[in-house]
Design a protein that fits this description.
- The structure is a single chain.
- By secondary structure, this protein is mainly β.
- It is about 0% helix and about 50% strand.
- Strands 2, 4, 5, 6, 9, 10 and 11 form a 7-stranded mixed sheet that branches. Strands 1-3-8-7 form a 4-stranded antiparallel sheet, with no helix packed on it.
- Strand 5 and strand 6 form a beta hairpin.
- The radius of gyration is 13 Å and the shape is globular.
């Protein structure tokens, strides 16, 4: 069965960095588009970044130039390097993929940006 397990969240000061990881299993990882979403309580989940098997990555305007999504197909892992973090980046970050009509989410990892 498909599993997505996020890690790497935590508390960081404004201007700091974190790297999130999402370990995937149960499917042929290299064939799938992978994404990171985030959600603040009371708000809709929003797409942060996406990466195809090969090709152009996508970033929301709010994170362009600060976040970098990457993947290691040999390790079945997708990463989100987050630099120059701001308090408004505080959220639960989720890993996501889709196969036809089936959507798969991890349980999320909390990122808190605060002094």
């Amino acid at each position: 069965q498909v599993q997505l397990v996020e890690s790497g969240g935590g508390l960081v000061q404004p201007g700091g960095s974190l790297r999130l990881s999402c370990a995937a299993s149960g499917f042929t990882f290299s064939n799938y588009y992978m994404s990171w979403y985030r959600q603040v309580p009371g708000k809709q989940r929003e797409l942060v970044a996406g990466i195809p098997s090969y090709g152009i990555t996508y970033y929301d305007d709010s994170v362009k130039g600060r976040f970098t999504i990457s993947r290691d197909n040999a390790e079945n892992t997708v990463y989100l390097q987050m630099n120059s973090l701001k308090p408004e980046d505080t959220a639960v970050y989720y890993c996501y993929t889709k196969n036809g009509d089936m959507a798969y989410w991890g349980k999320g990892t909390l990122v808190t940006v605060s002094s």
